[in-house]
């Protein structure tokens, strides 16, 4: 990725980065033609970026263009495999499991033609994706078999973080299966693997910690759930350990979310505000900043504190707009919630404006027949009717 585009992403200017990527792709297509590696690499980057930003329909078109451009040439197989994989993951998110399975099968078949050094790693990643597909489908025995097979295929050279990631995924599977003791066992195994590392700075450790906290919460052991994070904060303070501010913010937000789910509003509010304060001195990731405001706004909304709810939801909407552009589905989701608050206060003009924008954005990213679009369109019609 070009340094100027990476700089835009690092600053959270995702809309500008998307524009720059599109412009660069057009230039490379003119310079090299449609089936050269430089073009395929950029197409994959653009597709992945659009997917991350919530523009699923546009992302799928970019991936399919990449696949079509190389279908008859046999070139850029590695990029084509990744395009198939990305479309499959998109279909999983959308609940279109049959189509996802077809794309995974196409990717695995193409991998057999590869002799690049990355072949083993890509096969490994695709098998993880396939196991997640089985889990999403409810085919839990198939998913367990795949995860067990992947764990057995690890060696002494396999990074502890990769093994821990597999253990967390297997733990998540057991939670879905209501096998809580086995899930807890896998989460603890993952954390044991990561003891040599500074826990909060390691994403795999964070995943294990959060999964174990959610498991305790699901089992009705809320004190154990919050206790995991409180003990870790105590440990860090006692040993005078400094961790990345973003990692600490993630922990503060996780703790706030758990208190929120437990219905302990006072402590949830305190930790949301603590997380927001932590972000002030950091080049905070805009999405985290927006999420903290959004969660706090939702907490205030549930408490009936309309003024505070609107204030924080507005902050969240603006932060996500700056990061991803105003047409992002995340912005639309906040607009829909804000519209309800304005409607309840009788400010129907503002509610209609926000909800119209939300419907337009969701229609563009999800299609007119999607349930979200249908439900929000009906709600918009109701508010418009109440005015007349």
Automatic annotation (TrEMBL):
S-adenosyl-L-methionine among keywords: no
Keywords: Repeat, TPR repeat
Residue stretches in coiled coil: none
InterPro entries per the UniProt record, alphabetical: TPR-like_helical_dom_sf, TPR_rpt
TPR repeat start-end pairs: 81-114, 164-197, 290-323
Classification via Gene3D superfamilies: Tetratricopeptide repeat domain (1.25.40.10)
Pfam families: TPR_12
Protein name from the UniProt record: Tetratricopeptide repeat protein
Species of the source: Candidatus Obscuribacter phosphatis
């Amino acid at each position: 990725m070009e340094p100027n585009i990476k700089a835009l992403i690092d600053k959270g200017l995702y809309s500008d980065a998307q524009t720059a990527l599109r412009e660069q792709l057009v230039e490379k297509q003119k310079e090299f033609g449609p089936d050269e590696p430089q073009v395929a690499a950029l197409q994959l980057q653009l597709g992945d970026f659009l997917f991350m930003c919530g523009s699923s329909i546009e992302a799928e078109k970019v991936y399919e263009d990449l696949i079509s451009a190389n279908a008859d040439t046999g070139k850029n197989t590695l990029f084509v495999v990744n395009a198939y994989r990305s479309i499959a993951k998109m279909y999983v998110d959308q609940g279109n499991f049959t189509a996802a399975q077809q794309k995974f099968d196409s990717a695995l078949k193409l991998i057999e033609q590869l002799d690049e050094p990355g072949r083993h790693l890509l096969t490994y990643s695709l098998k993880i994706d396939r196991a997640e597909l089985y889990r999403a489908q409810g085919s839990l025995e198939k998913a367990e078999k795949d995860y067990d097979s992947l764990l057995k295929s690890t060696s002494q050279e396999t990074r502890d973080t990769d093994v821990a990631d597999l253990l967390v995924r297997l733990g998540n599977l057991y939670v879905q299966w209501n096998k809580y003791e086995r899930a807890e066992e896998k989460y603890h195994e993952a954390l044991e693997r990561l003891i040599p590392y500074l826990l909060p700075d390691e994403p795999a450790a964070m995943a294990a910690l959060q999964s174990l906290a959610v498991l305790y919460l699901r089992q009705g052991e809320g004190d154990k759930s919050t206790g995991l994070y409180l003990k870790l904060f105590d440990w860090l303070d006692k040993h005078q350990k400094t961790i990345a501010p973003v990692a600490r913010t993630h922990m503060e937000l996780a703790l706030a979310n758990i208190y929120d789910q437990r219905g302990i509003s006072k402590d949830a509010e305190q930790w949301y505000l603590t997380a927001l304060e932590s972000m002030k001195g950091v080049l905070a990731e805009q999405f985290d900043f927006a999420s903290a405001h959004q969660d706090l706004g939702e907490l205030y909304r549930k408490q009936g504190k309309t003024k505070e709810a609107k204030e924080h939801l507005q902050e969240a909407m603006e932060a996500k707009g700056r990061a991803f552009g105003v047409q992002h589905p995340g912005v639309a989701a906040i607009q829909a919630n804000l519209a309800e608050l304005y409607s309840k206060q009788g400010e129907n003009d503002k509610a209609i404006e926000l909800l119209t924008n939300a419907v337009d954005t969701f229609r563009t990213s999800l299609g007119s027949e999607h349930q979200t679009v249908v439900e929000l369109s009906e709600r918009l019609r109701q508010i418009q009717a109440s005015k007349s």
